[in-house]
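Researcher: I'd like a candidate sequence for this fold, 609 residues long. If you have to choose between options at a position, lean toward the conservative one.
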């Protein structure tokens, strides 16, 4: 029973550090191994002076990658690993900041509070665990009986729950302190109601800056310098940039490949209908390794959580029914619904990816073997020699740090993450992707960091050109306003400017308006002018407008009064969540975070080379 519980409990956290990590820490601390420049106790980051040791970072990173691999249907790319690592690091930083806030505010948690929370407020993972459900609903009594059982004592769940609540309860107390001062007045509720229930309809003339060529506007170096100086604090750090040369060996999928996988799906369906257990076939055949380990189980879901084809097929099935092969961008699926409760279903699937057949794959593999001779070398010329010998076309592509590389409309895994750890002139390992084999050479590297005037000049010039074009359009728009004031119709005034009048649909203060935008200056003017009035020129972010208010309807105050209590509850909840998010964002923004991960990893690579 304990084995079954451990196999199926999705909420068990990873407490055991992988063996190789333990070995690394032991060897490093004992002095039995070769001491490199980095030791387990090396500080890889500081958060307001609190140090993060290399050993702790390795443990958290390895656990995060392990979880991501189990949740993924395939091997993680270097880009995926980098994203997981960054998320894990940010979680570590945020946890340290929270611990510092708990200490500052003297927030503590007693054993009694932990015991009460464990009995009355189970973690979300436990609420979703099928073992603690009765007829599709969480059964608190079943959960409490389990906690009191010998199995719970042996499994260590009580220790795990204590760790969970020692982290969660102080967080709840902090958030309650932060959000408790949020209050909503009747005046605020009424204004919020007006924003969504006041309505207007306007006719407008739009003056588009794209009608003015860039050559008609001059931007001086002094203006660019002035803009840079005035907005320097607003510019975010720029990510690193790399230029790589990419060589690709396609792995085309033919109709014969698709037909072969489709037939295999039909054969598996026949096997299941003939008596084989769906779960056993899923474990044996499914390419979705995460669900395959659980007999293809995807959990209890609501409509809209999957891609359209899968979603439609799954929710059309009766409990126990097996679908025909369903094609999505991931391959062919066999889908089975275990049960349906209200608008949720418990669903399983078997995924069969569509891949090259043996004969065409053999051709691609042979060429890839030849290309692999250039992998990992530091001689840029070797890359050129081998790609030319194979008749491969190469392309220079820009990579942005933190973003997967895009080439020929496809995302190329691992290249971007590799580029920012490699040396200029170095060639990557051969990358085995679903659509092709790739090889990359790093041609240049520009580190990220605070933007300079040189790096921002192009963006600033574009912004100043946009502003100047809008300024040039204002006098033209003013002529339309003046012509209407002198007695011309709005249509006549617009026609004299070579433009036509557009009538908007009815809109609120917060709804998007075709041709006008959303929640901007021109929308605000529509609710500030009297009905029938024509505005002066109004500049928004991307155009200049002259508007005429055709109709406006004020919100119904009696209808507002009827729903005020419910509105207050909903708005309070949203504002409190917003207050907490703003507080945490401000906490992070003002924190002094010294992230040395890149330097440490670079020292490791240098020591290993």
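Model: Candidate sequence:
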């Amino acid at each position: 029973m304990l084995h079954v519980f451990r196999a199926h409990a999705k909420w068990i956290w990873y407490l055991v550090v992988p063996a190789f990590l333990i070995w690394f820490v032991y060897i490093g601390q004992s002095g039995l191994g070769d001491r490199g420049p980095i030791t387990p106790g090396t500080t890889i980051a500081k958060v307001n002076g609190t140090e993060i040791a290399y050993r702790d970072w390795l443990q958290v990173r390895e656990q995060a990658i392990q979880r991501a691999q189990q949740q993924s249907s395939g091997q993680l790319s270097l880009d995926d690993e980098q994203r997981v690592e960054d998320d894990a690091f940010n979680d570590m930083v945020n946890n340290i900041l929270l611990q510092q806030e708990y200490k500052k505010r003297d927030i503590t948690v007693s054993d009694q509070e932990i015991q009460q929370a464990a009995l009355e407020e189970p973690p979300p993972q436990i609420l979703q665990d099928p073992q603690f459900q009765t007829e599709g609903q969480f059964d608190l009594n079943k959960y409490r009986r389990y906690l009191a059982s010998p199995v719970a004592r042996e499994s260590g769940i009580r220790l795990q729950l204590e760790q969970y609540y020692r982290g969660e309860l102080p967080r709840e107390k902090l958030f309650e302190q932060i959000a408790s001062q949020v209050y909503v007045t009747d005046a605020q509720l009424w204004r919020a109601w007006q924003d969504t229930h006041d309505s207007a309809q306007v006719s407008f003339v739009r003056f588009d800056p794209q009608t003015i060529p860039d050559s008609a506007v001059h931007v001086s170096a002094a203006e660019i310098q002035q803009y840079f100086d005035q907005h320097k604090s607003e510019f975010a750090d720029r990510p690193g940039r790399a230029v790589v040369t990419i060589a690709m060996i396609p792995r085309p999928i033919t109709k014969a490949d698709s037909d072969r996988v489709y037939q295999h799906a039909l054969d598996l369906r026949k096997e299941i209908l003939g008596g084989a257990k769906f779960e056993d076939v899923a474990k044996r055949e499914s390419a979705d390794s995460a669900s395959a380990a659980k007999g293809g189980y995807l959990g209890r879901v609501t409509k809209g959580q999957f891609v359209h084809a899968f979603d439609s097929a799954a929710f059309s099935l009766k409990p126990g029914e097996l679908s025909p092969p369903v094609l999505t961008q991931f391959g062919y699926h066999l889908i089975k619904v275990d049960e349906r409760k209200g608008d949720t279903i418990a669903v399983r699937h078997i995924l069969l990816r569509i891949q090259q057949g043996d004969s065409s794959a053999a051709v691609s593999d042979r060429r890839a073997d030849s290309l692999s001779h250039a992998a990992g070398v530091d001689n840029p010329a070797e890359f050129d020699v081998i790609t030319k010998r194979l008749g491969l076309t190469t392309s220079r592509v820009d990579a942005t740090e933190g973003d997967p590389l895009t080439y020929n409309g496809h995302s190329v895994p691992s290249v971007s993450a590799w580029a920012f750890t490699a040396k200029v002139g170095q060639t990557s390992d051969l990358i085995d992707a679903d659509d092709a084999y790739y090889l990359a050479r790093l041609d240049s590297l520009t580190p990220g960091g605070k933007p300079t005037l040189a790096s921002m000049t192009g963006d600033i010039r574009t912004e100043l050109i946009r502003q100047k074009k809008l300024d040039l359009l204002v006098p033209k728009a003013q002529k339309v306003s003046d012509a209407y004031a002198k007695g011309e119709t709005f249509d006549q005034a617009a026609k004299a400017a070579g433009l036509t009048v557009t009538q908007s649909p009815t809109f609120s203060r917060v709804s998007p308006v075709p041709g006008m935008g959303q929640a901007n200056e021109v929308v605000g003017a529509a609710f500030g002018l009297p009905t029938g009035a024509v505005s002066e020129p109004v500049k928004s972010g991307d155009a200049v407008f002259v508007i005429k208010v055709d109709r406006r309807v004020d919100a119904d105050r009696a209808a507002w009064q009827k729903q005020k209590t419910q509105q207050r509850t909903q708005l309070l909840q949203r504002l409190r969540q917003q207050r907490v998010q703003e507080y945490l964002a401000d906490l992070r923004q003002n924190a002094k975070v010294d992230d040395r991960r890149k330097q440490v990893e670079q020292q490791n690579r240098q020591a290993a080379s």
